[in-house]
Amino acid sequence: MNNKLEKLKQKSDEMLNLTKEQFGKGFDFAKIKSNTVKDKINFKIREKAILSTKARLAENHKTFDDFSDDELEIIIADEERKIIDDLKNKSLVAALAFLGLNFFV
C-alpha cells in the first residue's frame, strides 16, 4: 500500500514538473513574440524618421553628406521622438473618441 502511494506521488510530481515546463515555454514564446513585435515597430518608426529627415534636409537644400554621423543620429532621434509623440496623441484621441468623450472639453 505504501509502495503504491509512493508511485502515485512520484507520477504526480512528474506530471507537475512537465506542466510547469510547458507553462514556462508558453510564457517564453509570448515574451519572444512581444520582443519581435517591438523590434518591428521600432524599425518602422526608424524608417519613417529617416524619410522625414530626408525631407527636412531637402527643404533646406542639404544632404546627409553635409552632416557627421553623430549629428545625423541626433536629427533622426528628434524625428523619432516627434513620430512617437504623434502616435501617442492619436492614440489618446482615439481612446477618448471610443469612450465618447470630447477631447476639447
Task: Write structural notes for this entry.
Helix 1 packs across helix 2. It is built from two helices and no strands. The model has no long low-confidence stretch (mean pLDDT 82). By secondary structure, the protein is an all-alpha fold. The chain has one domain.
Protein topology:
Blueprint: H1 2-59, H2 69-99
Concise account of the structure shown:
The chain is mainly alpha-helical and 105 residues long. The chain is built from 2 helices and no strands.
> Overall pLDDT, averaged?
82
What form results from the Cα inertia axes?
elongated
How would you spell out the order of helices and strands? HH
Number of helix segments?
A: 2
Unreliable parts: none
Q: How many E strands?
A: 0
The structural class is mainly alpha
How many structurally independent domains?
1
Task: Indicate the proportion of strand residues.
Answer: under 5%
How does the major sheet shape up? none
Question: Which value, in Å, is the CA radius of gyration?
Answer: 27 Å
Taking the alpha carbons of the first and last residues, their distance comes to: 75 Å
Query: Helix share of residues?
Result: over 70%
